[in-house]
Each structure stands twice: as C-alpha cells, then as structure tokens.
Amino acid sequence: MSRTTAEPYGKSTGLKLILVAIFGVITGYCIGSSFPRIATMKVELPRLTPNAEDGKYLEKVNSALCTNLFLNSKSRDDTKIYVTTNPRGAESLPPGIIESESDFYLHSLQGNPSEDLVIRPKYLLALTVGYNQKNIINTTISKFSDDFSFVLFHYDGRTSEWDQFEWSKRAIHISARKQTKWWYAKRFLHPDIVAPYEYLFIWDEDLGVEHFNAEEYIKLVRKHGLEISQPGLEANNFLTWMMTKRREDVEVHKVTEERPGWCHDPHLPPCAGYGDTLILEFTGKLVKRTFYNLIRSILKFVEIMAPVFSRESWRCVWHMIQNDLVHGWGLDLALRRCVEPPHEKIGVVDAQWIEHMVLPSLGDQGEANDGRAPWEGVRARCNAEWRELESRMAKAEHEYVHRNVQ
Ligand SMILES: *[C@@H]1O[C@H](CO)[C@@H](O)[C@H](O)[C@H]1NC(C)=O
C-alpha cells in the first residue's frame, strides 16, 4: 500500500519508474504482437536496474527488436512468396535472390567482393591424380592457360604435397581415397556447379601432352562444332580403337573406317562418334559379341581417357552417369544420346594430340585376390559395370516406350 505514493522516492526515481513502465509497455506490445516468434527466439532481457543510461539503452534495444519483429511478421503475412518457377524447394524465395549455379572461383577474405576475381576462367580442367604422377601432371597443367580453373581429384589422399607447384595454390583439391574419375565427376562436377565453364576437360593422369595445347584445341573444337571430343590418341604399342587414333592428314575427324565388317552404319560407333562397343546393339549376333568381348578383354583398360565436353553436353552426360558404376565403362557408347546429330557433334581433334603413357594408376590400386593381379579384379568390375549400364539403358528405354504407348 505504501508504494502507491511516489512522494518518498524523489523526482529522479519517478523518472526511472516511468522509463521502466515505458519499457514494460513496449516489451509487452512486442511480445504480444509476435508471440509465436519470440517464444523460440531466446531474447535475453537486460536486467532492470533503472538509471538514465540503462533507460536509453533499453529503448534502443526495444525499438530495434520491435522493428525487426514488425518487419518479419509483415513479410510473412502480407507478401507470402511462392514462386513455382523457382528451383524445387526454394519456392518461398524472391527470385531475385536465387543463385542456382556456382563455380570454382576462389575469393578473398576481405575487401570488396566485386573486386575478388581478377580473371574469370572460362574453362575447367579436372584431373584425377596420384602424387606419383606429379611431374606428368605438372607438364599437363603447363599446357593449359590462365583461362582454366583446375580441380584435382586425389585418389591417393595426398594433397598438401602438391604445393611445391606454383599452380597448386590456385587449384581446388578434392580428396577421397581410391575413387575413380567418374565417381568424382558425378559428385563434384554437377552441371549447376560448373555452369560458368564453356568446356570441361575431364582427364586421366597418364597422358603425354607434348603435342597438345589447350587454347588451340578449343579453337578447333569451336571451328568444327564439336560438343564432345577428345584429342587424337597416338597409339604406342597397344590396341587403340580406330576412332580415337590420331590421323595425320586432318585437323579433326568425325568418322573413321573401322576394321572391315565392323561398321553397321558409317554414322554410328565404332565408325563415328565415340565408342567402340556399339556393333552389338545393331547386329545382335552372338559371334560378334564374343569376338568383341575377346578384344575388350585383351585390353587392360578401355576408358574414355581425355574427354572434353561442352557445357550443354555435360549437363546431359552428368545425368547419365550412374552413382554406383564408377568406372564409366559403356559410357562412351551412350554419349551419343546427348548430342544431335552425334556424327557431327562428336569427334576427335587430330591436330592437337596426346599419348597414352600406360602407367600404373588407380586401376592398380585394387586388391590382389586368389592369385590374381590387382588390376584383374578391377577389370572384372569394369566389364560387369559395362554390361550393367547396357542393361539399365535398355530397361529404361523399354519403360519409356511402353509408357508412351499406354
Ligand atoms: C613444372 O612444369 C613447368 C613447366 O614445364 C616447369 O618449368 C617447372 O620447373 C615444373 N616444376 C617442377 C617443380 O617440376
């Protein structure tokens, strides 16, 4: 009862009480008007020792708090956003803020973000590497200009040792033990991530590049309208498919004469496009298949060693790469599904050519088993994956056709 009279407390105490009262009203208003939000916000209220300084401070805090709460509740209630054309899951964002694509550009920790990038590389080189091949990789990278971003996929887990090379500091290093080029590509080269790059080079580590220059290569790819390409391959004492074999008489070739009787259609692999296995699809003859498998089994690896994709073709190819089929066997054949017409947009650049060095690499990191060399187990998996990809593709096509008939 004695507290109802302000008399004994003096003038300044009265002021303090008024401030406290105001504070209470504001806080009450804010809490009341945004109850569900503040309940989860954990706002720590300042202690209530009223002096003039605290009073000012409290008012500031409260006006900021109120403004915030007010704005939030306004945008939530009055302008509810739902844009169906936004990327899936991001419909509640105003389209102007959405960044659906990214890049491998390195940024500064300080300064103005718009001044971070002195150059914006237009192309990407992704190499799957082991440290033992460091000198070859250093030579390979020397053939690629500043117009390239470099990504190194380290299958042996050794990343920091590469810093002896000057270029390593501007490269992106990604490490996962004993994983293949296609495993990495599927996980780290999503088309939305590599969107700014006009051409993607997804290369193996054991390539001789003495007669190769990346800028010249891109000029030829542009000139001949190639969406998927690879440099001509100089065969040194091992079997090479005619299609990828370097020809000395032309800049670029898109068709080739395969060994007699191998071409069902001159516009289809193995006589055009990438690839080597296609005959099976068209003849379906067991005898050829057997012969073909024999050839394939003689080769230790028939991978796509040095493919170059345009941005558009990569968007398609990435979607075709299966998460579990890590060796990419059979992909060479399927590539033609990603460009139209394949016999004009897939080709081999002979004027800029490479050599396959056939060095021990990831394939030899398999495990020795039952007296078999490590690479034998890997090759068996490659072959199995190749058949699996074929059958998945056939099944998918069948399902698609069937659905359309219904
Ligand atoms: C890397 O390659 C460049 C160009 O060929 C060469 O000048 C340099 O010495 C090499 N670096 C090392 C550490 O071998």
TrEMBL record:
Keywords for the protein's UniProt record, in alphabetical order: Membrane, Transmembrane, Transmembrane helix
UniProt xrefs under InterPro entries: DUF707 (IPR007877)
Transmembrane portions of the chain: 12-32
Entry superkingdom: Eukaryota
Transmembrane helix as UniProt keyword: yes
PANTHER family, per database record: OS06G0731900 PROTEIN, STORAGE PROTEIN-RELATED
Name the UniProt record assigns to this protein: Uncharacterized protein
Lineage: Eukaryota, Viridiplantae, Streptophyta, Embryophyta, Tracheophyta
